[in-house]
Amino acid sequence: MIRLLRQLCLVLAALLFAPATLAADRGPVVLAAASLQESLTEAADAWVAKGHPKPVLSFAASSALARQVIAGAPADLFLSADEEWMDAVAKAGLLRRGTRTTLLGNRLVLIAPAASAVRLTPARGFPLARALGSGRLALADPDAVPAGKYAKAALIHLGVWTGVAARVAPAENVRAAMALVERGAAPLGIVYATDAKASRAVRVVGTFPAASHPPIRYPVAVLKASRHKDAAGFRAFLLSKQARAIFARHGFSTP
User: Any idea which positions bind molybdate (predicted)?
Assistant: First the structure.
């Protein structure tokens, strides 16, 4: 009986303390723009190789992530694909003072399925609507998601938005937009250059002029509610020469 009681106590102790142990071994929770999947995962692996617990990475549209933070979702760092959604989190008073900085830059490209023969150069008045034929243009949601907002701004600047606005296939994030082109569900799409680089199923038709849309900047910040001991350290690592080299290999520009 005494031995059974001891075993029961050990089981109860394991159940009580296992969550705390797991939490202690877990790296910081990082909410990051969908376009950072491959590059941030590689950077996190490099951080782990230095002896740190692996960060928990959650990827989605910056708009969705910012709303989660504002709604109280527990996390340690936020990496947005634009300044506006980071501004929204800052306005809510949820950033740790002095930790916000620009991490990366990107370019906007027009893509088609890899087997497509379409030729088109993004420029003022270019025949985008005609190139779509009876198909639709895949974009991240142009009313909320950074990649879609940049794309809409570029098309307005180039004078072709009105001709394609009714034919947009909006997606929840930039990777979902690219997936429509990869599957052949859309003949053309607009994504970041880094997204196109990560896929063998699409090809870049052309790059949008940098002046046709607001600068594509990825800010990073530690969240005010974070208590993780590695939050500031991982942020610093992302700004390091080693991490910048990783991001550059994936096609991002670094300040």
Answer: 35, 62, 147, 174, 192
- How does residue 24 score in pLDDT terms, banded at 50, 70 and 90? low
Is 147 within any annotated ligand binding site? yes
Instruction: For residue 25, name the pLDDT band (cuts at 50, 70, 90).
Output: confident
Q: Which of 206, 203, 207, 225 is nearest to 216 (CA)?
A: 207
Task: Report the top-level CATH class of 108-207.
Answer: alpha beta
Q: 120-136: per-residue pLDDT in tens?
A: 999 999 999 999 999 99
Q: Which fold has domain 27-105+218-250?
A: D-Maltodextrin-Binding Protein; domain 2 (3.40.190)
How far apart CA 154 and CA 91 sit, in angstroms, is 27
Angle at 81 (CA atoms; ends 80, 84), nearest 5 degrees: 75
Residue 62 marked as a ligand binder: yes
192 appears as a binding residue in the annotation: yes
- 35 annotated to bind ligand: yes
Residue closest to 103 by CA, chosen among 206, 244, 245: 244
234 CB-side CA count, 13 A: 35
Query: Bridge partners of 105?
Result: 217, 253
As a whole number of angstroms, the distance between CA 98 and CA 51 comes to 26
